[in-house]
Amino acid sequence: MAAEVGDNARVRLAAKLSLLLGAASAVPLLVATAITLPKNQAALTGQLAELYQKSAAALAGETNQALADKIEALSLASHALPFHTLSPEEREQALLLVYRQTKGASIAGLFDASGDAVAAPVYFSTTPDGDRDGHETVNDVDLAAYAGAVPLKAAIDAGIAVGPVYVGADSTGQPIPRVAVALAVAGAKRGEKWVLAVEISLRTIADRFSAFRLGKHGQAFLVDGGGRIVAAKNPALILARTEHASVAGKRARGATADVPLVGWTVKVEQPDAEALLPIRRQMQTAGLALAVSLLVAFVAGLTTVRAVTKPVARLREAAAAVAAGKLSAEVAIKGKDELAELGVSFNTMTRGLRERERLRATFSRYVSDEIAQRVLAESSDGDLKGELVEVTVLFMDLRGFTTLSERCTPRQVVDILNAYFDVVVRVVAKYQGVINKFMGDAVMAFFGVPKAIPDPERRALQAALEIRKELFALNQRRAEAGELTAEFGIGINTGQAIAGNVGGQERLEYTVIGDAVNVASRLQTQAAGNEVVASGSTVARVQGAFQLESRGDVKVKGREQAVAMYLIVG
């Protein structure tokens, strides 16, 4: 079939070339040119619009990702630090740790619900020695701007909030846009909320917009929700917090793209005169090419035929390679004719396929294949609104990890967690379980959803025993190497739970919730170091398959009825 299509393509191209080369007068060529030029102009105009839109979307994506990375790093750092249990001196040290772990942080402060400081804010009036994470120097003016921009109430209500943009100059006088990111944390009293507020420098984002070039006079603006410029080529516009509407070009074209995380907008603009210059030049070139074509059409006939058929053959070979799964296939682009445009489109398509494959592979590192397939199988994220399922839930927690982490550097803490979690992730996947989330030094996994599997209870217990075996061996190796080790506890329970997407419009998580999940979490706390315990509802489904030791009925928090608990021996 592919060969037949290729032969037909050659026939059509040969016919078109024969008509072109057989033209005997200037009138038909003039008519053809009159028809072709507007189409080419429309195509070029469309390509310009696509270029603007891609540029705006790329800048918006980079900005959104940069902010998301900073907020995620801050969130991870804050969740690992129990501020409400620390002494005032320890809180200051914890704030310093948050400051150093958050790239772009300039000030770190801790406030109660009334806005009073719980601990002295951390900042530097000079850049710290060895600083490589974009920390800005802070003066009294910057400190006052930060205090007025902390979204205290919004953070307490929503858990996390980003304040309005404000601008401070660095030691060289360069204006640096900044925002205060606030996260609600537990207070010293029961039910009390404190707010961890960190000023984040937007220097890298501002530098990206300053360096953006589109032709000679095109530029990009980052505009906040109030229409004021956050980043642009001209630093004076940033310092003055100028409204974009007052500087937007009246005879310009461009595109916009949203930064969804904070409600900002990226605007790309280029003056009409510069943007349309290639079209005007194309018209001049087309007129000259028309005159030359009339002279050389017959002489160049055979060369033209060959020049056309060879790119078609290359394109066909590349298409066959893509059909066979080789997404790296591309065609060499020569010239600027329609076949070259087709080659460009083909290369763009293969790059899109490679990017989609890369995104799928990246997505699978953060979400299990089972959840990814279930989410992608639905017509929209909102379709997974919840369903009652039978599920086996496994919780694992590293014992004494908070004390252990106090003796380690942040890099050592992450290395230790990765060493242990690597075993857990691999073993759970081996038994067709799903890692749902990492909660500091704890892991939650479940078996039986979103994809049904045979004997989920047996698989969960087998996975737990294999985790115990491998972590025991890991601890031996680490001890022999003089490295820190950690004990763990595992709890397993089976029961009914609700499975579905949980979260807000900006972010969703597929998870399971309900009494079955809570019981598994509570059982994990009952397990001693390096023990695996399971509930009676789990054990009842695997009778005779495992060596058990009854621990009697235990009372778990949040549940009136006691739960039968068994130690899984082997």
Provide the descriptors you would attach to this structure in a database record.
alpha+beta; Alpha-Beta Plaits; Beta-Lactamase; disordered N terminus; 570 residues; eight-stranded mixed beta sheet
Structural overview:
The protein has 570 residues and is α+β, with helices and mostly antiparallel strands. The chain folds into 2 domains: 23-296, PAS domain (Beta-Lactamase); 369-568, Alpha-Beta Plaits (2-Layer Sandwich), CATH 3.30.70.1230. 48% of the residues lie in helices and 23% in strands. It has 17 helices and 18 strands. It has helices at 2-21, 26-79, 88-101, 140-149, 152-158, 203-211, 235-239, 272-275, 277-296, 301-323, 338-366, 369-377, 401-406, 410-430, 456-480, 515-526, 536-539, and strands at residues 105-111, 117-123, 160-162, 166-169, 175-186, 193-201, 219-223, 229-231, 252-259, 264-271, 387-398, 434-439, 442-447, 488-503, 508-513, 531-535, 548-554, 563-568. Strands 11, 12, 13, 14, 15, 16, 17 and 18 form an 8-stranded mixed β-sheet that branches. Strands 1, 2, 3, 4, 5 and 6 form a 6-stranded antiparallel β-sheet that branches. It has a 4-stranded antiparallel β-sheet with strand order 8-7-10-9. Strand 14 and strand 15 form a beta hairpin. Helix 1 (2-21) runs antiparallel to helix 10 (301-323) and helix 14 packs antiparallel against helix 15 (456-480). The longest helix has 54 residues, at 26-79. It starts with a helix and ends with a strand. Mean pLDDT is 79; it is low at 1-5.
Helix/strand layout:
Layout lengths: L1 H20 L4 H54 L8 H14 L3 E7 L5 E7 L16 H10 L2 H7 L1 E3 L3 E4 L5 E12 L6 E9 L1 H9 L7 E5 L5 E3 L3 H5 L12 E8 L4 E8 H4 L1 H20 L4 H23 L14 H29 L2 H9 L9 E12 L2 H6 L3 H21 L3 E6 L2 E6 L8 H25 L7 E16 L4 E6 L1 H12 L4 E5 H4 L8 E7 L8 E6 L2
Parallel strand pairs: 14-16
Antiparallel strand pairs: 1-2, 1-6, 3-5, 4-5, 5-6, 7-8, 7-10, 9-10, 11-13, 11-14, 12-13, 14-15, 16-18, 17-18
Helix pairs in contact: 1-10, 2-9, 10-11, 14-15
